[in-house]
Each structure stands twice: as C-alpha cells, then as structure tokens.
Design brief:
By secondary structure, the protein is α/β, with parallel strands linked by helices. Among the domains are: 105 residues, no CATH class; 116 residues, Rossmann fold. It contains eleven helices and six strands. Strands 3-2-1-4-5-6 form a six-stranded parallel beta sheet, sandwiched between helices. β1, α4 and β2 form a beta-alpha-beta unit. α2 packs across α3. It is elongated and about 110 Å long. The chain starts with 5 loop residues before the first helix and ends with a helix.
C-alpha cells in the first residue's frame, strides 16, 4: 500500500491487530468447526488462524520475500496462538459458573416481586387473625367448619397466595400498625387471634391491641415456655405453646402403643398438664431463675421432667459413669450443708 502515509499505515495496522485478536473467540466457538476431531482440532484451528493472519498482514509487506528468520517467528506465532486458545477455553470453563451465579444474583435483585397494595375493602369478619402461620392455618379450619368468617392479615405475599387457596379473606398489611388493624375491621371483630412467627412481633401486636382496643379478647400462639411467661404478664385471654398439645397427643399415642388403658392415659396426661401449669405459676411468681436448685443455671427457661423418674439413671459408658458420680457427690454435699 504505497499511497498510505506512515501514520495512516500505523493506524491501519492497529485495526488489523485488533481484528486478529478478536478472531480468537470466533475460531474457538464457531459452530462450523464442531465436526472437526477433538484430538486435532486445536492444532488445526491454530494453523488456519495463522494462515488467516498471514494473509491479513500480507498486503502491508512492501516486497514479500522468504527469509530464514521468518521460520522461528512463524513457529512462535503458532505456539502463542495455540496457548492462547487453550487458555481462553480453560478460563471460560472456570469463569462460566461464576458468571452464571453473578447473573442470577443480579436477576434476583432486579426482579423483586411487587408487594400487593393494602386494600381492606369488605374486611368485617367475626374473627381477625393476624399472621397466617402453620398454627393459624389449622386453627382457622375449626372456625370455617362452624361457619364463621375469618379475616387474615399477613405481610408475606407468598403466604397470602397460599391462604387464598383456602378461601380466606386475605389482606396484605402489617398487623403491628393501628391503622391497618382498623382498616381490617378490628372494631367489628368479636375476637382477635395472633399467630405471628416471632415472640417479638407477637408481643408488639398484643401490646398495641391491649392499649388501643382493650375490649378485644386476644387468643395468642406462644412460641415456647419463655414466651408463655411473657404473655402471662399481658392482657391475653388465652395463650398456648405451639407444640404443647401436639406433644401430649404424641405421648397419648405412644402410651396406647405400650398397652395402657384409655382411662389411665387420660389421667396421666391431665397430671402432666397440671404439673406443667403449676410449674409455670411458680416461675411466673418467682421469676425466670425460680428453682435453680433443680435447673441448669442458664438465663433461659430450661426443660425439666414434670414427673419424677421411677428408676435412677444408668450409665452406658465410662464417661457417663463419671458424670453421674459427680452429680451424686454434688447432691450429697448440698443436702449435708446446714441451712444458715
């Protein structure tokens, strides 16, 4: 190209170099070469890319002639091209899972499901249920079976979709807000059922209703024993631990399986209920640390047997035997210590 100036020739060579660089991906991923044998595909692609590069650069050579120095240069170019293709394939295999993961995360952040609007038109049921948890879903079945209408408030769009399948009046909203409770018809409801998931949210809702709507009877699901003790300080008409009665039902069936009579089983279960209630009242009066002589010293309510075992504990290994001996020594020393 004798008519081009040196500056134009340099610019054109930069464009050609960019073109040659970009063809690496074309040779590696073009579907036209899929039928080539895998054993020789890399070498063949390298060869034809070198031929393409030579033909592309040929017009820029003023007086083409063969020189022995071009042989090692050509071999180096072929080796460089082959290494580049292999590295590009390996890197693409390594980075593809990472790029897919990043893409999925970006899609999750950009495709957030829109929250439904707070629309409480027609929310005037006999029972207002706040939080459609698994316990609330089962409890609501009894209300529906008796023909009662139930209005449910929840702030989880997925739960709202599930509840709609049961035929409930479902409303999206935060049950810990006074304006939401009024819009949902709390003033016309005969009672309020609170079955939210966490004790903190449940307590917040209970305190709000007790303060703003003190005439409303509240039936509350307690998360555990510690939460039960908290609710006993609040204006709650009825509260129950989520797993208490189901655990007793399981114990009932196990006693049946062991051959106990129905009358005896009911007597045992009633005894367990009374002992549990008595223990709750002791803990309510004396605080969380009541009965530290029989409980582990931990700032939480700890489970303990409601009925004294009929047989002493038996060690099954050497370590268990050492622990039992330490407990017996501690109990003996405690009993022998005179009261001040």
């Amino acid at each position: 190209m004798p008519n081009l100036s040196r500056r134009d020739r340099s610019r054109l060579l930069v464009v050609v170099a960019a073109l040659l660089w970009s063809t690496s991906g074309f040779y590696a991923k073009a579907p036209w070469f899929d039928d080539w044998p895998m054993e020789t595909r890399g070498v063949a692609l390298t060869f034809w890319r070198a031929v393409f590069a030579a033909l592309t650069v040929l017009p820029f050579v003023r007086r083409p002639q063969f020189r022995i120095a071009m042989v090692p240069m050509s071999m180096a170019f072929v080796a460089m091209t082959y290494s580049f293709l292999v590295a590009m394939v390996v890197l693409s295999m390594i980075l593809t899972p990472l790029s897919v993961w990043i893409g999925n995360k970006l899609l999750e952040t950009t495709s957030v499901e829109e929250e439904p609007e707070e629309d409480f038109q027609g929310a005037q049921s006999t029972v207002l249920m706040i939080g459609f948890s698994r316990m609330g879903q089962v409890a609501a079945q009894a209300l529906l079976a008796s023909g009662k209408e139930v209005t449910v408030i929840d702030n989880n769009p997925n739960i709202i979709k599930q509840a709609a399948k049961f035929g409930f009046r479902i409303y999206f909203g935060n049950g810990s807000r006074k304006d939401v409770l009024i819009a949902a018809g709390i003033q016309n409801a005969k009672l309020v059922c609170v079955t939210t998931h966490t004790p903190e949210i449940t307590n917040r809702i209970v305190d709000l209703i007790a303060s703003e709507f003190p005439e409303k009877a509240m039936y509350v699901r307690a998360y555990d024993r510690a939460h039960t003790l908290q609710l006993m300080d609040k204006k709650v008409k009825y509260q129950i631990r989520e797993t208490f009665e189901s655990a007793l039902a399981l114990g009932n069936e196990m006693l049946k399986g062991l051959g106990h009579e129905e009358e005896e089983i009911q007597e045992i279960l009633e005894n367990v209920r009374h002992l549990d209630q008595d223990r709750l009242m002791v803990q309510y009066r004396e605080g969380m640390y009541a009965g530290l002589d029989i409980l582990h010293t931990k700032p939480d309510v700890q489970p303990e047997p409601l009925v004294k075992p009929q047989h002493p504990a038996t060690a099954l290994d050497e370590r268990s035997s050492e622990v039992l001996e330490e407990e017996i020594l501690n109990d003996t020393s405690t009993e022998s210590t005179p009261a001040e």
